[in-house]
Amino acid sequence: MPTKVITENDLEIITPKLFKVILLNDDYTTFDFVIEILRSVFHKSEEEAINITLKVDREGSAVVGVYPYEIAQMKVDKTHSLARTAGYPLRARIEEV
């Protein structure tokens, strides 16, 4: 049986498609809760979380991270779950980059 040597040129690197997670503004979710979501789910610093929260408030939405699809969807689901448990209508969505 012949042996095939695989070289670096033979390797095909497949990079996953990336998706933006976008946080949407509403009139009921508190700034403190949004900041906590950004810190706990998206691992943002206090300063980043405050700046993103202000952008969502002023502009209606903001990108909070870019991830492969499965991770982006998990973060959206976690955000929705925590918001519903706390009684807030906070919403997030994903959009392909």
From TrEMBL:
<keyword id="KW-0645">Protease</keyword>
<dbReference type="InterPro" id="IPR022935">
    <property type="entry name" value="ClpS"/>
</dbReference>
<comment type="subunit">
    <text>Binds to the N-terminal domain of the chaperone ClpA.</text>
</comment>
<dbReference type="InterPro" id="IPR003769">
    <property type="entry name" value="ClpS_core"/>
</dbReference>
<dbReference type="GO" id="GO:0030163">
    <property type="term" value="P:protein catabolic process"/>
</dbReference>
<dbReference type="Pfam" id="PF02617">
    <property type="entry name" value="ClpS"/>
</dbReference>
<dbReference type="InterPro" id="IPR014719">
    <property type="entry name" value="Ribosomal_bL12_C/ClpS-like"/>
</dbReference>
<protein>
    <recommendedName>
        <fullName>ATP-dependent Clp protease adapter protein ClpS</fullName>
    </recommendedName>
</protein>
<comment type="function">
    <text>Involved in the modulation of the specificity of the ClpAP-mediated ATP-dependent protein degradation.</text>
</comment>
<feature type="domain" description="Adaptor protein ClpS core">
    <location>
        <begin position="15"/>
        <end position="92"/>
    </location>
</feature>
<dbReference type="GO" id="GO:0008233">
    <property type="term" value="F:peptidase activity"/>
</dbReference>
<dbReference type="GO" id="GO:0006508">
    <property type="term" value="P:proteolysis"/>
</dbReference>
<comment type="similarity">
    <text>Belongs to the ClpS family.</text>
</comment>
<keyword id="KW-0378">Hydrolase</keyword>
